[in-house]
Amino acid sequence: MSSSASSSDDDLLPKLPEDVVVEILKRLPVRCLLRFRCVCRSWRSIIDSPLFVALHLNHSALDPSNRYLACLHLTLGNSPRSLWSLSSGDSLSMSQIEVPFAAPFGRYRFVGSCNGLICLTKISRTELGYHLSTYLWNLFTRKHKTVPRSRMDSAVGFGFDARSNDYKIVRIYSRYGAGDSYPYAQHPVSKPRVEIYSLSTDSWRSLKCEVPTFSCSRTAVFLNENLHWFVSHHNDRFVSRLKYLGRDRGYGSILLFDVTSEVFNKMALSAELLRKVCVSRVVVLSLLNDLLAVCTSSAVGRYPRQRSTCSIWVMKEYGMPESWTKLYSFLVDEKVRGFDGFTMNGELLMVIDDDERVSWNPITQQFTYPPLTIQSNLVTVVESLVSLEPR
User: Per its UniProt record, what Pfam families does this chain match (predicted)?
Assistant: First the structure.
């Protein structure tokens, strides 16, 4: 083909208005769009534009078929060989994706996902102590980025600042007692400090603010431009009393971090939910249909015939503690060790004492065993074209 013919590829295409082309393209999966970038320069320009990336993401987020449960399968050495993506409509529809930055040694874990980007960490042990590596990854575009090194964290979250169109990683870290061994330490002996990574600057900075000393889950839930951690506070008489009674979970609330204004706040639990939390062995914060949810589990019976009573609570009006409502309560004929959150169709994934993952359907009240091993880490992710290039 001559150069003149090559330069007029756009003239060979049907003469559709650009807004019609955009409406068609935004409905297509990412794998098709990446191929269609090569059709002509005008299509490449459309697909690469930030406006189209945002339009495609908004459309993708509304379609349940574009949401996936990503399962990071770990080997015995805790290194990911592959990532399995389960489609929302069929739990048996799995596709394998190689992890481009997988290394032979290290402990990998998802931090969270936001707008199609996945944040995950790797903890490796060296002669000088523990080493933390962090990655950002869009598994649909097959692009990833290694985040500059930072300190070891005791709590971490990943979210999106809509005002500055920037993605941020927030680390809260503390100094632990001499008898503790990270990452199993639970009781910090100093005031927490905060660092923030910004994708736009590709750098970390310290945040000068007061953060109460607390114990919390390492990862956060991102909703309404806030990161949420469920926390148990230290230096509280009620906590001390509960610890004396052998109930270490104790008094709790939800710590919020506004990703835009970069300030911390607290969200209270309702009195009924607080009473439930205080007698539960497992308490996990999650998302259910874009609502903040709390999953609790309490043991009943004695070993070896120990069972669990579980309950699911949601905050129906965000920011209103009185709107906490119990949706479900059910019995499990095993000891529940943890919750992985909800699938796209509302099923609850949990880990039971036999080192198995179980899925509970609130509609049918039935338990199933999905094709997920215990040696895996899960996160929900939406298909998107979001770039990892600094803005």
Answer: F-box (PF00646), FBA_1 (PF07734)
335: phi then psi, degrees, rounded to nearest 5: -80, 120
* Range with lowest mean pLDDT among 133-142, 146-155, 363-372: 146-155
pLDDT tens, residue by residue, 257-313: 999 999 998 898 998 998 888 888 888 999 998 899 999 999 887 766 788 999 999
Domains annotated for the chain, with CATH where assigned, are 3-61 (no CATH), 63-382 (2.120.10.80)
For residue 57, report the phi and psi dihedrals to the nearest 5 degrees.
Answer: -65, -45
Tally of CA atoms within 13 A in the half-sphere of 98 that contains its CB = 3
In contact, 357 and 350? CB cutoff 8 Å = yes
Count of residues for the chain? Answer: 391
- Contact call for residues 82 and 73 (beta carbons, < 8 A): yes
Tell me the C-alpha distance between 70 and 111, whole Å: 12
How far is it, in rounded angstroms, from Cα 36 to Cα 25?
Answer: 9
For the chain, give me the number of helices (H) and strands (E)? Answer: 8, 25
Output Rg (C-alpha) for the chain, integer angstroms.
Answer: 23
Q: Which amino acid is at 201?
A: T
Q: CB under 8 Å to 121, separation ≥6 — which residues?
A: 108, 109, 111, 132, 133, 134, 135, 156
Average pLDDT over residues 364-371: 86
Report yes or no: 359 and 389 within 8 Å, Cβ to Cβ.
no
Q: What is the pTM (predicted TM-score) of this model?
A: 0.84
pLDDT over 70 for what percent of the chain? Answer: 75
pLDDT band at 54 (very low <50, low <70, confident <90, very high): very high
